[in-house]
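Side project, low priority. Logging it here so it doesn't get lost.
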Amino acid sequence: MYYIDATIYASRRSPAELELMSAAGGIAVIEPMTWLGTNRQYAETYIEDFERLVGPEARRAHHFGLGYGACIGILPHEAAQTGLAQAVLNAMPRYLEQDNVVAVGEIGLGSGSAGEEEIFRRQVRLARRHELPIVIQARPSDRQELIAKTLTIAAEEGLPARYMLVNGVNEATALNVRRFGAWAGLTVDPNTHLRPEAIVSLIHREGTDGYVLNSAAGRMLGDPLAVPRTARAMAEANLPLSTIEKVTFHNPKWFYSQGHALPLGVWGDKVSALASPERLAPRAQTNGQAYPAEVARVR
């Protein structure tokens, strides 16, 4: 079996852990921006992080046989710093053109303030302009209304729902995200998010359409092997291999390849062929109305 960890802070994992991930069937990792433990005070700190992700961290992952995709953006709780956010927004376009930047993220709303909303809207516009999907940060404790507001704003800015992935959902918010037509990122962490057994039950009940798995493993937190462990739990529950591979590999590969092609490192085309977009794209609905079939790439 092979897999893609759809959100992991790989730069915060040790070389031994990256090697274990590769040995366990890891094909690629996706690393979004993360909080440093305290809010960034200078735009230069953000830009240094952008440089680190698209350069040294990508090369480090490749050294261990892992493809690497970066997501860059202004985190929700740091977006209220207007001067910092403006300077970072001005710098983002040149990084969004990098081949290994596969999405804008993690972005979204923290408190839901007007300032956060404006910075979120501007980042969605950048994603549209560069034909990239977005990764929205949510927490299991986030209110349904806040997640719905975030998705609605992205849709108001003209981004189709199939270009939206909401990370950190719980079982209830996952279903609402899917009803909207966006992708739901199921984070495997028994202490803070979802247990493998809960994910097995959800996939068995709801199917694979529009779901991706991630470990969200950062420094000293999370399990970098959470995705293959959950795949094993699915196999033990007698879910078909095609089901397991869809949520652990095909779905994240399709989502993150809507803009730039997801870099697969040494694997390249050696993995099995990607299923057609018509089969993999989640049915996007807003107020009960499906997006027309002819909606293709964001222009």
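Brief comment: The chain is about 40% helix and 15% strand.
Revisit when time allows.
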